[in-house]
Request: fold
Amino acid sequence: MRKNRFLLPAVPLFLTGSLLAGCTVTAASGTATSSSSDSSATTVADVDATLTAEQVLAENEDATTVTEDEWNTGTETTITLDGDTASVDGSGVTVDGSTVTITEAGTYRISGGTFTGSIVVAAPEDAVVALVLDGATIENPDGAAIAVTSADDVAVQLEDGTTNTLSDASSYADDADVNAALFSEADLTIGGTGELVVNGNGNDGITSEDDLVVTSGTIVVSATDDGLRGKDSLTITDGTITIDAGGDGLTSDNEEDATRGYVDISGGTFDVTSGGDALSAYTDLVITGGTLTLTSGGAAGSTVADDASAKGLKGLTYVVVEGGTIEADAADDTVHSNGAVHVNGGSLTLASADDGVHADTALHIDGGELTITESEEGLESAAITIAAGTIDIASADDGINASSGTTSTGGGMGGGGMGDTGETLTITGGDTTIRAEGDGFDSNGSATISGGTLTVWGPQSSGNGALDVNGTLDVSGGTVLAVGSAGMVVSPSTSSAQGWISVAASGSAGSTVQIVSGGTVIAEYEAEKDFASVVFSDEELTDGGSYEVVVDGSTVATATEGEAMAGGMGPGAGGGPGGRP
Reply:
């Protein structure tokens, strides 16, 4: 039984236990920080952030793909376009002025010069119809260029070496049933090795009210609203796709069936520019391959209206990325889910005017390469887990923020200044680097580090800290270096199994920072910013040992393992100096 398919009204979140990505989460969070009319009002709470692409897709209804074996019987009817009329060689077609109507199952080759009119498929409900576009240019100033009003399955085959162009009306009535340059009420599959240019002048470029599948071909779409829309699902396995859309670039928007409304991309090359979301799924967005270049809402330097959504990748229940190369630049969250985000493969380079990656309920990273070059906050969710992968974050505010949206996510509140509200931030592996102007590594609840490498080049402002944890910061493994200002320094818990030091130590960007014990250099780093404090934890540190922090060859501080710097803040300790009992 699919357990992750209900949307809950937004309510304040007061988490009363540990939220771990990978476990079913049953609490709902409040409004997300991003501006979005369709994604900030609801939170999907019952999700498992560790689900793979295969597992997520298995819980959806299979998409219908019309294969060549189904439609290519070797017999074709030829439709030759000529001005505002057409001639037909074969059966199953009627011509009435500038309207060509296909009434039977079969294969129809459409060629000729520029045609001012429309191709209508009105075949029996069990019919399989193939349209072979062979150098066709269809312009309809009064409606859709191609409209499938009835059939079972329809294939559009792009003949090798040809360019085919579809253009529709400049506007549609609000209640129009047909409202795209290429419109289908039936399952629609587009393939072949030719090119299809679509001008969606009045609304969408290509729309299927059922499943829309692209298997190959070169497709170029400009659309007033959405570029490619499959209401029940949108599946792309290959092809070269260029979209310039005033609305969403690629979308599936079935709001009524929990097993539909998903987008599945496993291959292809994409260049998508959208006024709305670049990729948008009402339920799940799954990416396992392909090369995607996405720009939404005018990119990270732009502003999104409060009632708009201009995200890069959006899946309201799940976003799962297991492969592919993605470069996304968004005026909103670059990756967003009201439920869970799972990254375990691929390469993502993200720029955002808001969050680089945002998941209302849970965010799980256990593979891949994730680089956030620009963001307000890098990663944000109520439960964040990093188990593997390479993560590099640049942020104007918090680098990683475990937040439910019920408390301030910005700077100005140091560790211990607020109570633990139940969020979790967990690192068990991977290589994570944070460059933050606000808090670097921030949890409104607790945080645990048991493996991997965490490097934080934190803020220079004394109102923020490289580490900021309201509850307990427990370190039992891995390597942690947190360098930043001295005003809000948080140290690991005194009960942490692994040793740590916390000192006031100043240096400049480019300085060489060494942790030294008895003349032996345990660790060495080159500072990326000016700094006034250093927190370090590694298995090399011994209980109660004495260590020197050396900057550019000069000892600037001496630290005892397990003792917080004077004026530092132990998590949950209300700001008093910490230290092992």
Notes: Residues 53-58 form the longest helix (6 residues). Helices lie at 53-58, 68-71.
